[in-house]
C-alpha cells in the first residue's frame, strides 16, 4: 500500500505555493518593469504575500483572482481596495468572492483607475487596515 506522510503533503503544498508566488513575481518583472525595477525580489515577495493575505480577507481563495488583486496593487497602488467603488464591489455579498475581484474590471464597474493610480501611496505597503 502506498502511504503519503503529512510532511510530504505539506512539502508539496509549500512547493506549489512557492511556484505560484514566483510566477506572480516573474509576471510583475515582465509586465510591469517600471513599477518593480527598483525593488529587490525580497521586497516584491513580501508585498505579494501581503497582497495575498489582504485578498483572503474577502474570502478569495482562487489563485487567478488573488493574483489579479496582487498585480493590481502593484499596477495602481497597494490601497486601491480602499477606494469607494472598489470597496463596494469587494464587499458585495451578492457575488462569490472570486467574482468580486473580476467584477472590478468590467466596463460597467466604472472604477476610476487613473485617479486611483494618481493617488497611490507606496508608503502604505504592508500596513494593516483591518
Walk me through the topology:
Layout: H1 6-31, H2 33-36, H3 41-56, H4 63-76, H5 84-90, H6 97-103, H7 113-118
What would your notes on this structure say?
By secondary structure, the protein is an all-alpha fold. It is built from 7 helices and no strands. It has one domain. The chain starts with 5 loop residues before the first helix and ends in a 12-residue tail after the last helix. The model has no long low-confidence stretch (mean pLDDT about 90).
List keywords for this structure.
single chain, 130 residues, mainly alpha, 0% strand, globular
Quick structural overview:
The protein contains seven helices and no strands. By secondary structure, the protein is mostly helical.
Structural class by secondary-structure content: mainly alpha
Low-confidence residue ranges = none
Helix content: 55-70%
Order of helices and strands: HHHHHHH
- Structural Rg: 16 Å
Give the CA-CA distance, first to last residue. 47 Å
Compute the number of helices: 7
Number of strands: 0
Q: Could you say how many structural domains there are in total?
A: 1
pLDDT average, as an integer? 90
- In percent, how much strand structure appears in the residues? under 5%
Q: Main sheet? A: none
Q: Judging from the principal axes of the Cα atoms, what is the shape? A: globular
